[in-house]
Amino acid sequence: MTTAVPTAAGPRSTTFRRLVSLGRAEATLLLRNRSALFTALLLPLVMIGGRRSMLKQQAGSHPGLDIDALLINGTIGGILAFVVYYNLTAAYVGRRNELVLKRLRTGEARDIEILAGTAVPSVSLALLMSAVVAVGGAAVLKLGAPVNPLLLAAGLALSIGIMIALAALTSAFTKTVETAGITTLPLLLISQFGSGLFIPLEVMPGRVADFCRLLPTTPGYQLIRLGWTGTDGSAPATGFAGTWSTAAPHLVTGAVWLGLAVWGAVRYFRWESRR
């Protein structure tokens, strides 16, 4: 008779380990994709010049615009739109068409972990770029410290959550990675021109501005601006306590859009290509 020798058990699989593993694999693929890197790293920064020029023109007819604060807020918004939404839409479509998502579902990872793990590199890169822009902008443009850091963080979290859910939803209507540039274009245009990044809401006609405040990406961007400067353009700076009351409509609108985007992603997201 022989005695069985117990083998050493490997490290226990946890949600954190699975997210890290999926995120590391996705980051490797992102680094190998030059077009995705260009879109993620350079395009939002290239747009700074055009955004600053447009803001200067608008300040000529609307005195009192804080060009520097609007420029930083617009740049961060552009980073979130291109790095998270566009890049992640293409990633979901690519992994789906390569049957990677289908194979991952046969393992231990849950659906939410697969989607979140795929988003980890894009979200991490967006946060890093936003931090660099914020610190660099504050140093060069001499902007003050955030009035309400918690509200600023809430705006970032809300924006990222909506972008991830909308990326998953958009991927359901995107056949190939190449067509992602077309299917994501409507939301990118809404984000840039309808949510106050290129054209501040306070320079728009009243009814147009009210409509734009109800767009999916506007609440998060307004919360970021409000948390940093203490104003969303519709009211003067009100300090730490007062910013919460001003933020209430943006928080409610953003929560509604987040719920709708998550519902749409759950309802329509496809894990494999239709043959």
Question: What features would you highlight for this structure?
Answer:
about 280 residues, globular, mainly alpha, single chain
Overall description:
The chain has one domain (16-268). Helices cover 72% and strands 0% of the residues. Mean pLDDT is 85; it is low at 5-9. Helix 3 (67-97) packs antiparallel against helix 5. It has 11 helices and no strands. By secondary structure, the chain is mostly helical.
Write the layout of secondary structure elements.
Layout: H1 15-32, H2 34-61, H3 67-97, H4 100-104, H5 111-141, H6 149-171, H7 180-183, H8 185-194, H9 206-212, H10 218-229, H11 239-268
In short:
By secondary structure, the protein is mainly alpha-helical.
What is the count of helical runs?
11
Tally the structural domains. Answer: 1
Mean pLDDT: 85
Element pattern in H and E: HHHHHHHHHHH
* Termini gap: 55 Å
Sketch the major β-sheet: none
**How many beta-strand elements?**
0
> Could you estimate the helical fraction of the residues in percent?
over 70%
What structural class is derived from the secondary structure elements? mainly alpha
Instruction: Report the uncertain regions.
Output: 5-9
Name the overall outline.
globular
Strand content: under 5%
